[in-house]
UniProtKB/TrEMBL annotation:
Protein name: Methionine ABC transporter ATP-binding protein
Lineage, broadest ranks: Bacteria, Bacillati, Bacillota, Bacilli, Bacillales
CDD domains, alphabetized: ABC_MetN_methionine_transporter (cd03258)
Gene3D superfamilies assigned: 3.30.70.260, P-loop containing nucleotide triphosphate hydrolases
PANTHER family in the record: AMINO ACID IMPORT ATP-BINDING PROTEIN, METHIONINE IMPORT ATP-BINDING PROTEIN METN 2
Domain ABC transporter: 2-241
Organism: Metabacillus flavus
Top-level taxon: Bacteria
Record's keyword terms, sorted: Amino-acid transport, ATP-binding, Cell membrane, Membrane, Nucleotide-binding, Translocase, Transport
Signal peptide range: none
């Protein structure tokens, strides 16, 4: 659905030039929820603006829903933009128009007759759960409701791709979750391809199938969300993954517990997908001559299954501990010894 080949975007500024997007290659499949995560200044906004033709690439090619973005102009670009819709952090609603008229706006531009527009607006209002609020003005709505209007408006002309620019960053955690659930619902119901940019790993964990991590204009890591969670490679990815699994200090604090034991090891186990459902710790205790003490554990859900981290204290003969840890690795559990007495 989306293909980027060697795409760069260089801005000319007084002091020289800034490479905001640096030789990016990317492939997004139809029906996928694809997240791009990075800190401020990584180049996410520039990248997303390239996808809907608001910026043209300095080099490279971009294809979205069969359109060669960056090469088409005028009416062709306007037509392509109907297939590539966008929602924004600050909603970008028309404040003097009601909910219904905001949603109808792109239909008016597309020249849809009034009676058809009315029907379509009704459908969209239902889809995003805004029944009863059709005549309200944006200033009378909560943040979550405003974003629902933004989503309905973005879906009005049946786009093939929905781009989300930090769509939940201005919302509180509970409202964020309800908007993310709405995006998943739309993705499943309409088969819509969604590309979102964010600086919050929570958003990636909650709804994305795939993730790309951006730093200094480059994609430094990419893959299925669960795989990236299981084995983050780049240091920046590790920091993002820690945002949702354990605070950075947890490992250190737990490692210190080893001081209270005369022997043994503290290990961190990382479970992904099916391995979270297997009783591996029970098997470990039953089949190996080791003592096990559970120190801390946490399981989070992602779109493609569960992800969990468990800290254990384990003690016994060195060779028996090695065998026990090998057993865990053989059952698709990542094992890291964080402290050794
Ligand atoms: N129109 C522009 N002209 C000049 N420089 C720009 C322009 N747009 C972005 N930049 C620069 O390009 C780099 C990447 O910015 P971009 O906004 O794409 O990053 P971002 O990851 O979206 O960050 P943020 O979340 O803060 O917007 C930054 O150094 C920024 O200052």
């Amino acid at each position: 659905m989306i293909t980027l080949n060697n795409v760069s975007k260089v801005y000319s500024v007084k002091s020289g030039s800034i490479t905001a997007v640096d030789d990016v290659n990317l492939e997004v499949q139809k029906g996928e929820i694809f997240g791009i995560i990075g800190y401020s200044g990584a180049g996410k906004s520039s990248l997303i603006r390239l996808l809907n033709g608001l910026e043209t690439p300095t080099s490279g090619t971009i294809e979205v829903a069969g359109n060669r973005i960056g090469e088409i102009k005028g009416s062709k670009l306007r037509k392509a933009r109907q297939e590539i819709s966008m929602i924004f952090q600050h909603f970008n609603l028309l404040w003097s128009r009601t909910v219904a008229d905001n949603i109808a706006f792109p239909l008016e531009i597309a020249g849809i007759p009034a009676s058809e527009r009315k029907e379509r607006v009704k459908e969209l209002v239902r889809l995003v759960g805004l029944e009863g609020r059709e005549s309200a003005y944006p200033s009378q709505l909560s943040g979550g409701q405003k974003q629902r209007v933004g989503i309905a408006r973005a879906l009005a002309n049946n786009p093939k791709v929905l781009l989300c620019d930090e769509a939940t960053s201005a919302l509180d955690p509970q409202t964020t979750d309800s908007i993310l659930e709405l995006l998943v619902d739309i993705n499943q119901r309409l088969g819509l391809t969604i590309v979102l940019i964010t600086h919050e790993m929570h958003v990636i964990r909650k709804i994305c199938h795939k993730v790309a991590v951006m730093e200094d204009g480059k994609i430094v890591e990419e893959g299925e969300v669960l795989n990236v969670f299981r084995k983050p490679k780049a240091p920046i990815t590790k920091r993002f993954v820690q945002q949702v699994t354990e605070p950075e200090e947890t490992k250190e604090t737990i490692a210190h517990l080893i001081d209270s034991y005369p022997s043994g090891r503290i290990v961190q186990l990382t479970f992904v997908g099916d391995s979270t459902e297997q009783p591996v710790v029970t098997s470990l205790i039953k089949n190996y001559d080791v003592k096990v003490n559970i120190l801390q554990g946490k399981i989070s859900q992602t779109q493609s299954g569960a992800y969990g981290a468990l800290f254990l204290y384990i003690d016994g003969e060195e060779t028996e501990m090695d065998r026990a840890l090998q057993f865990l690795s053989d059952h698709q559990v990542e094992v890291e010894v964080v402290a050794h007495a």
